[in-house]
Write a structure and sequence with these properties.
The protein is α/β, with parallel strands linked by helices. The protein folds into three domains: about 240 residues, Aminohydrolase, N-terminal nucleophile (Ntn) domain (Glutamine Phosphoribosylpyrophosphate, subunit 1, domain 1), CATH 3.60.20; about 200 residues, Rossmann fold; about 160 residues, Rossmann fold (3-Layer(aba) Sandwich). Strands 3-2-4-1-10-9-11-15 form an eight-stranded antiparallel sheet, with helices on one face. Strands 5-6-7-8-12-13-14 form a seven-stranded antiparallel sheet, with helices on one face. The structure holds 5-amino-5-deoxy-1-O-phosphono-D-mannitol. The site of 5-amino-5-deoxy-1-O-phosphono-D-mannitol has 16 residues, from helix 10 and helix 17.
């Protein structure tokens, strides 16, 4: 995700940009750096670790610059080290650049630059962008011309900010999909990747749109397109306070994180699907996938629920026997592990003590390990044999939402990758890739159900018990939806496969009991309708979530919520979590609960 800042004006520019990135802490930190106009050249100070390390470096130098750019990194390419920290220089050390996002074709661009004699200090895609802009700048024209030409050569979702030694007092930035906000005030110009970093300096802001370039000087900000056509920025006045602004104007991080899921999917897929194929870097050799006879997925909480989705997927799509374990049980269960098995660890934080202990047990037993992890540089990411990052950005709310969705998507990508490598008959990788492409818009539509979910939530906010039911993948999602409700709204839940109800839990249904049915799976539709009837016959109120192409629940359930079909049953089920996350959120809200920090819980559970 990363935080970006830039300032030109009469104040101490380095202090301003460091203050700005401090206000972007919620976007994640693993290293930070600053570049500023020195007396004769651009100077860069940067360091791995928290912002205080950078503050110490700055304090020693006490720079008095009037233009500066800064960055706080949340690693996606390359470990969080001093070398990989931003800003990065071009080949001639005359242009400094900070960047947010992923440049998908950076390997291709890097090879070209290496052939032209460039050498690189870091493993980042960012340094490639700096060199590319430097190479374009040497061809002539202004810094913004070079940025325009280089931007056209890059693919992916990115935003970057540059300054050049030969053009002091000027900062140029460009955007393609990653956020950049401009700040306007008399005699000063600012930019940042999010509004909170601008608020102490100005409330007059404009969002830089995709494929636009902005030039910041003391005299003001000029915005233009990649073709050089000048455009008038739409300046607006921000009236939120800074705490609300950190949350993007949402009342809680949880709601912000639910709502940003369309972008999370884009970010998670970036560089991983091309044409009709999946391309996952850094995995095991193709030969190894032929050898694996069993998968064991090991995780806790929400990540365990994502693991259950993995089991459904791997067994149905790949006919690969898969077990899912709670990390805390796996470790003490003396598990029987085939030497040909693969242990998959799923974790948002990468620091969950139970999962790390289970990982170390697998390593002792010489079992191959793969991590599906959100936090780059975390213990799990470093200790597994191979890692796939979920690329969901920092998750602040204790209740996991966007990380779950990203974990499901990475599992789906992995399933398609294995099918591709094994050339599995009957699995259409291209259909899976197409369904993934449909996902961001389907999720966007699902987030637009917020008002409807709020209305239902308010109606049932005082419910003493809520049921979450489904079959196959929908039953897995039911477990996750129930966990969301209990952890933030403190409402007891009963969750199980719908067919299990008559073996006991049905006894708990009373007049008016809310029963939420995941009903996206057409293969089990008839049986599920029978289960719905069983609940209704005992007075239960049924809320069903299904796809909008399926009318079979109309008139059956008391309330039907429809999501847009993606073209794949697994992804439809995964997507159905979005309205259910909102149901939990709004029920907790109606009950006045502490949503982002529920009682008794912590974001990262580092004790066993
Ligand atoms: O960081 P991890 O994914 O390893 O965390 C695992 C669980 O502690 C976590 O998913 C927890 O269940 C969430 N609070 C649920 O919303």
């Amino acid at each position: 995700m990363c935080g970006i800042a830039g300032y030109v004006g009469k104040k101490n520019a380095v202090q301003v940009v460091i203050d700005q990135i401090a206000r972007l802490e919620y976007r994640g930190y693993d290293s930070a750096g600053v570049a500023f106009d020195g007396p004769s050249s651009i100077k860069v100070l940067k360091s791995a670790g928290k912002l205080d390390r950078l503050r110490e470096l700055v304090a020693k130098e006490d720079p008095q610059a009037t233009s500066a750019i800064a960055h706080s990194r949340w690693a996606t390419h390359g470990a969080p080290t001093d070398l990989n920290a931003h800003p990065h220089f071009d080949q001639a050390n005359k242009i400094a650049l900070v960047h947010n996002g992923i440049i998908e074709n950076y390997m291709e661009l890097k090879e070209e630059l290496v052939r032209a004699g460039h050498t690189f200090q870091s493993e980042t895609d960012t340094e490639v962008a700096a060199h590319l802009i430097g190479a374009e700048f040497e061809k002539g024209g202004s810094l913004e011309d070079a940025v325009r030409r280089a931007s056209r050569k890059m693919t992916g979702a990115f935003a970057f900010v540059v300054m050049a030694e030969s053009e002091p007092g000027k900062i140029v930035c460009a955007r393609n999909a990653s956020p950049l906000v401009l700040g306007f005030t008399e005699g000063e110009s600012l930019l940042a990747s999010d509004i909170p970093a601008l608020l102490p300096y100005t409330r007059r802001v404009a969002i830089l749109e995709n494929n636009q370039v902005a030039v910041l000087t003391e005299a003001g900000i000029e915005v233009s397109t990649l073709d050089g056509k000048v455009v008038e920025p739409e300046i607006f006045e921000v009236d939120w306070d800074s705490t609300a602004a950190e949350k993007g104007g949402f009342e809680h991080f949880m709601l912000k994180e639910i709502m940003e899921q369309p972008d999370v999917v884009r970010q998670c897929l970036a560089g991983r699907i091309a044409g009709n194929e999946v391309s996952l870097d850094g995995l095991f050799s193709d030969h190894m996938w032929q050898e694996i006879d069993r998968v064991n997925i090991i995780a806790c909480g929400t990540a365990y629920h994502a693991g259950l989705m993995g089991k459904t997927l791997f067994e149905q799509m790949l006919q690969l026997p898969t077990d899912v374990y709670f990390s805390s049980e796996f470790r003490y269960g003396d598990p029987l592990l085939s030497p040909r098995s693969l242990a998959v660890f799923i974790s948002q934080s990468g620091e969950t003590a139970d999962s790390l202990a289970a990982l170390r047990l697998c390593k002792q037993r010489r079992i191959r390990t793969l991590g599906i992890v959100n936090v780059v540089g975390s213990s799990m990411a470093r200790e597994v044999d191979r890692v796939l990052f979920t690329q969901a950005g920092p998750e602040i709310s204790v209740a996991s939402t966007k990380a779950y969705l990203a974990q499901g998507i990475v599992l789906f990508l992995l399933g398609l990758h294995i099918a591709q490598v094994k050339e599995m008959p009957g699995v259409s990788v291209s259909a899976g890739v197409q369904a993934l492409r449909n996902l961001p818009e389907a999720i966007q539509e699902a987030t637009e159900l917020a008002d409807e979910m709020k209305e239902i939530a308010e109606k049932f906010a005082q419910a003493p018990l809520v049921f979450f039911l489904g079959r196959r993948a929908d039953a897995n999602v039911a477990l996750e939806a129930a966990l969301k409700l209990k952890e933030i709204a403190y409402i007891p839940t009963q969750e199980c496969p719908a067919g299990e109800m008559k073996h006991g839990p049905l006894a708990l249904i009373e007049q008016g009991t809310l029963a939420v049915f995941g009903a996206t799976d057409p293969a089990t539709r008839d049986k599920l309708i029978s289960n719905i009837r069983e609940v209704q016959a005992r007075g239960g109120y049924v809320l069903a979530v299904t796809t909008s192409d399926d009318p079979s629940l109309d008139g059956v359930a008391e309330k039907v919520i429809k999501i847009r079909p993606t073209g794949d049953a697994f992804l439809n089920a995964l997507l159905s979590i979005v309205p259910l996350q909102m149901l939990a959120y709004y029920m907790a809200h109606a009950r006045g609960c502490e949503i982002d920090q529920p009682r008794n819980l912590a974001k990262s559970v580092t004790v066993e």
